[in-house]
Amino acid sequence: MNSQQPSLAQGLLAGQRGALARAITWAENADRRFPQLLEDVYAAVGRSHRLGVTGPPGAGKSTLVNQLARHLRELERTVGILAVDPSSPFTGGALLGDRIRMEERTLDPGVFIRSMASRGSRGGLARATVDAFDVMDAFGFDQLIVETVGVGQAEYDVVGAADTVLVVLCPGAGDGVQAMKSGLLEVADVLCINKADLPGADRMVADLEEAVHIRTAGKGLWMPPVVSVSAGTDQGLDGLLEAIQSHRAWLEAEGRLQLSRQEQRLDQVQRVLREGFDHAIWEGRGLEGYARAMIKASRTPHGAAERILEQLKAALPSEWAQVQEETQP
Amino acid sequence: MNQRKIRVLIGKPGLDGHDRGAKTVASVLRDNGMEVIYTGLHKTPAMIAETALQEDVDVVGLSILSGAHMELFPRVREELHNRGLDHVLLVGGGIIPADDMAALESNGFTKLFGPGTHTEDIARFIQGEMEKRWAKEAADA
Ligand SMILES: Nc1nc2c(ncn2[C@@H]2O[C@H](COP(=O)(O)OP(=O)(O)OP(=O)(O)O)[C@@H](O)[C@H]2O)c(=O)[nH]1
Ligand SMILES: [Mg+2]
After folding, report:
1. What's the structural domain count of chain A?
2. Dihedrals φ, ψ of A54, to 5°?
3. Closest to A107 (Cβ–Cβ): which among B26, B37, B50?
4. Which of A135, A144, A190, A147 is nearest to A49 (CA)?
5. Which residue's CA lies nearest to atom 15 of ligand 1?
6. Taking 80 as the threshold, does the pLDDT of residue A326 lie above it?
């Protein structure tokens, strides 16, 4: 590239969709140019509300995201969507099919949809989801939405990526008790029973309202509203948008959003550090080879790890302990 | 840390109602380690190109059986061009006479696959082509 050509960051901040698309690709590929790009646009990050949509396979997440986007557009809000589908652990390939349910939004200049393969992450998102959200945020969307992989149990990366987590369930995919033990209730800020046109939806709403009440009543916690909708026939979306809005308002009061964003940032730092550790220390500084030697010198794998950890700890700068004390919340 | 994957959009422009072939190709490419976006039937050239842009794909593969390829394929190419996507590897397949294949191949399409093409050959062609392009990019950088 010659110096006359605008940089990717400039293109992105100027609203070029192609630049945004390429920025997301850099995030996904862990391209070495990405950290600088993020730095160049970071002043513009932080204005979008981030909604995570999760739930079991086939609950209607994509259909619902499409409807949400449509209603938001009627309110003249712009929408950036990430739709995550699983990569094959065997071939690394992926069939990305969520956007097929959002095709009506394709030519709307106020909507941007990007499919993302999970690429080995097992928490329901891709490794780069938060990075991609950041560049979409800088681009200037009012609302960001990420649809997770269809999750069963205990795949909760979405909590670290979203301000508001919407859990989508539907009748026929188990009862309220199953929803409780799956842990999905614990991550929900808003609960949505989709396919209210099918039998069993009312029962599910009642079950979940009770479960939510038991979990949260009298504890000063946010009590997730339970909303029933039928995304397929576009019913109940206004109520759902209101519920999302009410959670957002609750977050923004009393500085909760700021705290939650700090935690999101911390998650991101930790993730990048772990990757950096694998790359720079495990591979780059020969820890892998040293670990092999330690295995021979130790009785068990735990023993080997223990010895390495002791040496790493001894090498840490002493002022870290002090910073730790000063920043404890 | 090269974590690059070949990203492919399989598009079906026009009105024909069969997408078994397109779906077969999509799943074979997936099985060859590619990330494949399939958008379903009846897409306009503008929708296909806009999807290619948002998804930042390396490859667009068009499939058509209706006979309208000489009208629709060049329009997809034009819509891609309008979005600055001339770098995308453009291939196509379907029921297309040899003359038309040659015409398209001298007009922006890198390769047309006729009926009876082995799907694995399509995967191998795309892989080979992308390897060449990425090697060239790396050499230029
Ligand atoms: N009856 C009924 N069917 C619906 C409704 N919403 C979605 N569906 C259907 O449910 C099926 C799954 O919908 P998707 O939106 O693809 O579900 P998803 O949760 O995104 O699925 P994955 O991404 O594969 O986990 C489709 O056949 C939809 O047409 C609804 O409100 N009522
Ligand atoms: Mg989906």
Report:
1. 3
2. -135, 170
3. B50
4. A144
5. A60
6. no
